[in-house]
Structure formats: C-alpha cells, structure tokens
Design a protein that fits this description.
Blueprint: E1 21-22, H1 24-35, E2 39-40, E3 47-49, E4 55-56, H2 58-70, E5 78-82, H3 88-99, H4 119-122, E6 124-125, H5 126-130, E7 135-136, E8 147-150, H6 159-163, E9 168-173, H7 176-193, H8 201-209, H9 218-231, E10 236-240, H10 241-246, H11 248-258, H12 265-270, H13 272-279, H14 282-287, H15 289-293, E11 295-298, E12 301-304, H16 323-337
Parallel strand pairs: 5-8, 5-9, 6-8, 9-10
Antiparallel strand pairs: 1-7, 2-3, 3-4, 11-12
Helix pairs in contact: 1-2, 8-16, 11-13
This protein binds adenosine-3'-5'-diphosphate.
InterPro entries: P-loop_NTPase, Sulfotransferase_dom
Domain Sulfotransferase: 75-341
Family: Belongs to the sulfotransferase 1 family.
Length: 344
C-alpha cells in the first residue's frame, strides 16, 4: 500500500505528473559524462567514481548532477545529509516532527502524518526522488521551511545549498562498522529481489574498506561534513547516531535551536520534547501500520517502508564482522581521522 493522502509539504514521487517538467537532454548529457568515469564492482549496482573522488550508482550520480545544476536553495531550507544506513530515517523523523510540531502535535501522535507516510516521504531525497526519471520538479510552491535530504558528500552538494548562507545542513554519521553491516543487510535484500546471490559480509567489508560503498569512501564523506561543521557551525550541525541513542532529548533540543525553533518553557513543561523522542523512537516508528504495510516508489520499484528498520542498536557489527575485518576498519578510521578532532 502506498498512501493516497497528500500534504502541502509533500513532494511528488516517481509517478509521472502532467505539471512536472522533464528534461531528458540534460539527464542524457550527465549520463554520458558519468559513463566516461571509472567503474568498480559495488555491493549491489556497479559504482562510478566521480572526479571529486566519490562513488555512486550511475542513476544517483546523474541525479546529483542534475540537482546541482537545477536546485535553487532558499535561505530557510534545511537539508538532511548522511551516508546511507547512518540513521537517516530517524533524523528525518526527528527534524520533521520538530519543525511541524505546532501543526501536528506529537502528543496527539495518532493524527500525525507518520501514520500515513514514511519519514522518507516527509523529507525527500534530492538525487533519489526529486531529480530522477528525467524530471525537473517545481519546488517553488512548497511552504517554508522546505526540508530535503541527500546522501552526496559535501563537495557534491548542489552549490546553492552551500552559497545560500542561512540554508542549513543537518548531518548524521554512525560508527563505520555498524554502517557497513546495516548497508550489507539492506543491499542483500535488493540483490535477492534482483535474483543475485547474497554478498558475503567479508566481501562487503573489502568493498567498504576500498571506498566502494554507496557515496563512499565512508571516511571522506564524514570528514567532509565534519570540516564544514568546524568551519561553519551555524550552517552545518553534526550529529552521531550513537550519541543520539544515548541522549535523544538533548539532540532534539539542539536540533530545534539550530533550525531557529527552540522549545519554549511552556513546551518543556508540556513534555513536547519527550513526546517527539517517543514518537520517533525505533519501537514506535517500526510498529506503525504505515511502516509495516506501506511502501514508497523508487527506480527499482516499490520499497517496503519496513526495510528501513532492522535492529536500531549500537554495536550489532560484533555479530557479523570477523575480528580481522573490524581491526582493518578501525585502523583505517584511526589513520584517516587522526588530528581531525573526530571520534566516531
Ligand atoms: P540497523 O540496520 O543497524 O538496524 P538509514 O535510515 O540511514 O537507512 O539507517 C537505517 C538504520 O537506522 C538501521 O540500522 C535502522 O534499524 C536504524 N533506524 C531506523 N529508524 C530508527 C530509529 N527511529 N531509531 C534508531 N535507529 C533507527
């Protein structure tokens, strides 16, 4: 079931739509360029290496390039940025619930949009959903603040996101070993659907260490946003999944302040922060009917909303990765993050 209800802030999905412009020539021009880039085996799709040094399947790289040339940021825009499987669904839920808390009261969680659409439909990806299928969406009518998401590294963000000073970026990263295991699980589901053999976790770890994970290398991605955060803390918020798990309420308060919507004393007294944390928790979100029965259309066909919820715990890598693979990843992390001030 994909929801038929639409909201004013909701963007169009993959469906063809008479109002949406298309520009097949622009998409083709970027597809031709991406075709000239070096390719490598990936965990699911073949990966292309952009000359900025990052890897992605062709269709997403083309989407990112079209977004770069067509997306016009507004000063009030808020962009969620992350690597896949780092807690994107969670931070999207927290940001959406925080920004829209007056319209959709988290205390009355039964009426909340999360009962009909997934956080991925509340906050759409630029390169996966909006700039895909030859479409150039008209995003002008969306109410402020517009919320979008991306998996591209900082260097590849649509340039107006970077140059529009007050447009904000919320980044979340996660321990590389847990990010890897979560990615491996997720992509094996798509391999099964495509009739491919499952990838072993050993092979997935090798590809990950070689930077051949979607939007990887992992370390470049995290460092890119970390440095942007250090240089412009008022523009780039930097969260870690593990710290969010330890104290979600503190993160919701920081998020609200960062986007210019701090919680008032009355809201604190009414327990609004705790209500947002509860509503967006793994237990609540994964149990919703919209999660269990809902799906969202993608280039690969419908994806069940439930796929974005697996275990949601810290340190599950220990159940899957060999000590050697873990040591190899830790060694790369130590070497790459040395002197950066970053401890993941
Ligand atoms: P696991 O596979 O380790 O369980 P993304 O949203 O970036 O695709 O990341 C998915 C990961 O975040 C999955 O991790 C998923 O279970 C976890 N996750 C999804 N929603 C969550 C939530 N509300 N709270 C905590 N973790 C969540």
């Amino acid at each position: 079931m994909s929801s038929s209800k639409t909201f004013p802030w909701q963007t169009k999905g993959q469906e063809a739509d008479a109002e949406t412009e298309t520009n097949p020539e622009l998409y083709q021009r970027f597809a031709d360029l991406v075709s000239s880039f070096p390719t490598s085996e990936g965990m699911l799709d073949q990966l292309y290496r952009h000359d900025q040094g990052w890897h992605a399947p062709k269709v997403n790289m083309v989407g990112a390039m079209v977004a770069d040339s067509c997306f016009a940021a507004r000063p009030s825009d808020i962009i969620v940025a992350s690597l896949p499987k780092s807690g994107t669904t969670w931070i999207k839920a927290l940001l959406f619930a925080t920004v829209h808390r007056d319209e959709y009261r988290p205390a009355d969680a039964d009426d909340h949009p999360f009962h009909s659409v997934s956080p991925h439909e509340c906050i759409s990806f630029l390169e996966f959903r909006l700039y895909s299928g030859n479409r150039i969406p008209n995003l002008d009518k969306l109410p402020d603040p517009r919320l979008f998401a991306t998996h591209v590294p900082f260097v590849a963000l649509p340039r107006t996101i970077v140059t529009t000073t007050s447009c904000k970026i919320v980044y979340v990263c996660r321990d590389p070993k847990d990010t890897l295991v979560s990615t491996w699980y997720f992509l094996n589901k798509f391999r099964a659907r495509a009739g491919m053999d499952p990838l072993t976790v050993e092979r997935a770890a090798e590809l990950f260490c070689d930077g051949l994970s979607p939007f990887g290398p992992y370390w470049d991605h995290v460092l890119g946003y970390w440095r942007a955060h250090l240089a412009h803390p008022e523009k780039v918020l930097f969260f870690r999944y593990e710290e969010m798990q330890r104290d979600p309420a503190a993160h919701v308060r920081r998020l609200a302040e960062f986007v210019g919507l701090p919680f008032g004393a009355g809201e604190e007294e009414d327990g609004v922060v705790a209500a947002i944390v509860r509503m967006c928790s793994f237990e609540h979100m994964s149990g919703l009917k919209a999660t269990k029965d809902g799906s969202m259309m993608t280039k690969d066909g419908p994806i069940a909303n439930s796929l974005f919820y697996r275990r949601g715990v810290i340190g599950d890598w220990v159940n899957h990765l060999s000590p050697e693979a873990a040591r190899r990843i830790d060694a790369i992390t130590q070497a790459r993050f040395k002197g950066s001030g970053l401890n993941v």
